[in-house]
From TrEMBL:
Signal sequence region: 1-19
InterPro entries noted in UniProt: Di-copper_centre_dom_sf, Tyrosinase/Hemocyanin, Tyrosinase_Cu-bd
Keywords from the UniProt entry: Copper, Metal-binding, Monooxygenase, Oxidoreductase, Signal
Species of the source: Schizothecium vesticola
Entries under Pfam families matching the protein: Tyrosinase
Domain of life assignment: Eukaryota
Protein name stated in the entry: Monooxygenase
Keyword Transferase attached: no
One GO MF term: monooxygenase activity
Domain Tyrosinase copper-binding residues, every copy: 88-105, 251-262
Matching PANTHER family: TYROSINASE FAMILY MEMBER (PTHR11474), TYROSINASE-LIKE PROTEIN TYR-1-RELATED (PTHR11474:SF126)
Length: 323
């Protein structure tokens, strides 16, 4: 199953609420929000500590009771894959992934990382995404996988950087241990750009962000730039990179990607915080129920299940971050 399949509108159990009135009480606010930085703006020490914490996750046994050799690192890919229909193609796409990144950040802290979640601003790098700082083999996540036989599973192994030692256990929801795989999409378009960079340019992000209704913004962001980055890193619909299937948290770049998606949502909320902080809506499936701020955000045991309302405002006491 390739990433394209997660874009199908789901009929999951999550419960369009209209944008709530500006009189809605805000949650308790934080006083000293943590700053989430772009990868290239983080210090060398922050980047090194982040990478070491990711590697640490891959040494700790699964906390979900997944069979050995699954680790905490694999817990995130498994949870994301098994919840596929409830977290993609639905209004809860953005708040669920905001919670998921938050849980991952806590896991990195358990491995000694003292910084905050970091993001990759792929729009800024869209003209030449394969040359972005984040792929540096020494200070970043390593680059492309082996392209000698790019159509065979298990052959597009990442060739350099700190994550060549990773061996993800899951491919979608199946137990299928393999090397960490990437397959950067070849140049296409006019002028040609690798990794589908023409689909997540600053102009594209601005166009998506011009949507004034949450449901339209959510759909445009998920099915546009967000999906293009997944496909671009994984090799398109034919690719076998780990960012392609629904077990996409196999690739640690997933969390920098989704932190950037969260940043774009935050920027959209900041355009009109009185109205948009708790703006939420849409239907679940073509003829499904309407979304509600009290719909459940399931975490498959990674963390307690929560509700959408709790992950709408980054200034809430339990999130307390900014960009």
């Amino acid at each position: 199953m390739k990433f394209a399949q997660i874009l199908t509108v789901a009929s999951g159990s999550l419960h369009t609420a209209l944008a709530l009135p500006s009189t809605l009480p805000r949650q308790q606010t934080c006083t000293s929000p943590k700053l989430r930085k772009e990868w290239s703006q983080a210090t060398a020490g922050e980047r090194s500590s982040y990478i070491q914490a990711v590697l640490c996750l891959a040494t700790k046994p699964s906390t979900l009771g997944l069979p050995s050799p699954a680790t905490v690192y694999d817990d995130f890919a498994w949870a994301h894959a098994t919840l596929n229909n409830e977290i993609h193609g639905v209004p809860a796409f953005l708040p669920w992934h905001r919670y998921f990144v938050h849980v991952y950040e806590d896991a990195l802290h358990d491995c000694g990382y003292t910084g905050n979640a970091l993001y990759w601003d792929w729009a800024a790098d869209s003209g030449a995404p394969a040359s972005a700082d984040v792929w540096d083999p020494t200070t970043g996540f390593g680059g492309n996988g082996n392209q000698t036989t790019p159509s065979q599973f298990g052959t597009v192994c990442v060739l350099d950087g700190p994550f060549t030692v990773l061996n993800p256990v899951y491919w979608n929801s199946d137990v299928r241990p393999h090397c960490l795989q990437r397959s950067f999409a070849e140049p296409s378009g006019d002028p040609p750009v690798e990794m589908f960079g023409f689909n997540y340019t600053p102009d594209i992000v601005a166009q998506v962000s011009s949507e004034t209704v949450y449901d339209q913004f959510n759909n445009q962001l998920e099915n546009g730039p967000h999906a293009a980055v997944h496909q671009g890193v994984a090799g398109g619909f034919r690719g076998l990179g780990d960012l392609g299937p629904v077990s996409s948290p196999n690739d640690p770049i997933f969390f920098l990607h989704h932190t950037n998606v969260d940043r774009i949502w935050w920027q959209w909320q900041q355009q009109d915080p009185q109205t948009r902080t708790f703006a939420y809506g849409g239907s679940i499936g073509e003829n499904g129920p309407t979304a509600d701020l009290d719909d459940i955000l399931p975490m498959q045991g990674l963390a307690p299940d929560s509700v959408v309302r709790e992950y709408m405002d980054v200034n809430s006491a339990h999130l307390c971050y900014t960009y």
